[in-house]
Amino acid sequence: MKLEIKNLSKTYSNGVKALQDVSLTIEKGMFGLLGQNGAGKSTLMRTISTLQDPDSGQINFNDINVLKKPEDLRKVLGYLPQEFGVYPNVTADELLTHIADMKGIVNKGERKDTVEALLQKVNLYDVRDKKLDGYSGGMKQRFGIAQALLGNPELIIVDEPTAGLDPMERNRFYNLLSELGEDAVVILSTHIVEDVSTLCTDMAIIGNGKVMLTGKPNEIEEAMRGKIYEVPIDRNKLTEYQEKYNVISQRFFAGKLMITVLADELPDGKFDTKKPSLEDAYFKILSEN
Ligand SMILES: Nc1ncnc2c1ncn2[C@@H]1O[C@H](COP(=O)(O)OP(=O)(O)OP(=O)(O)O)[C@@H](O)[C@H]1O
Q1: Is the beta carbon of 78 within 6 A of some atom in ligand 1?
Q2: Where does 12-55 show beta strands of DSSP type E?
Q3: Mutational test site, ligand 1, from 34, 36, 43, max ligand atoms within 8 Å of CB
């Protein structure tokens, strides 16, 4: 199983270059596409999902030429868009049954079994007869995954799935997502670094419509070992430190401002060496662009 994206470009009519010569090879497993708001993630996800056309480039999934045969891709695609839309005043069971019907699962018995199994899988079986518009954000997202999984897709795309979930719902959702990569190519688009470090075996960072880095999260972290330092400072000293050092990020920690600095060696005795995280790598890339 393999998704190959080659030289994909897209400029919107307002002149925004949302994709600039994007090439990626994505194999079976969970692939994280990390980028800030506006980086081009949704444009890429919608293009792969055949909802919009690029200006140029190619996409192949196994032997399907996606841009030439979008209908072939749709048969093996499961897509959870960023905005799944307004949740109608129907139950999870009713809507999933309806979508299963539209996806071509026409045999009633088979459809009932499929819908039941999926509701079990996403842990909504007990609330299957409740109206969707009364669901919590996490429950809605789990429903979104259930509909994306109808028809056993080989390519699953989830766009910013954990935005707006509370920590417990996010954890539950992670458990669900972590199983998906076993038999499919799964692309998880997100601006949340933790999503990628928790779930993904491979990743890319995208910014301004360009691929800035690809690799395995642990290798990307490892490449930064011995180069990341931190020190707590007074908030009003930030500019001073920024002038002197390559400050890649800052956060509040117990009332102090903790700054993270990129350097080839210990900047001075006040700094501590920090075990690099994926977030440090991400901030480094962002600070360079
Ligand atoms: N239909 C459109 N017409 C014009 N510009 C657009 C359109 N859709 C997106 N853009 C612009 O293209 C750029 C990339 O947007 P895109 O939605 O792909 O980014 P994103 O990484 O998914 O961000 P977000 O998380 O905010 O959705 C942004 O500058 C956005 O404003």
Answers
A1: no
A2: 17-27, 29-34
A3: 43
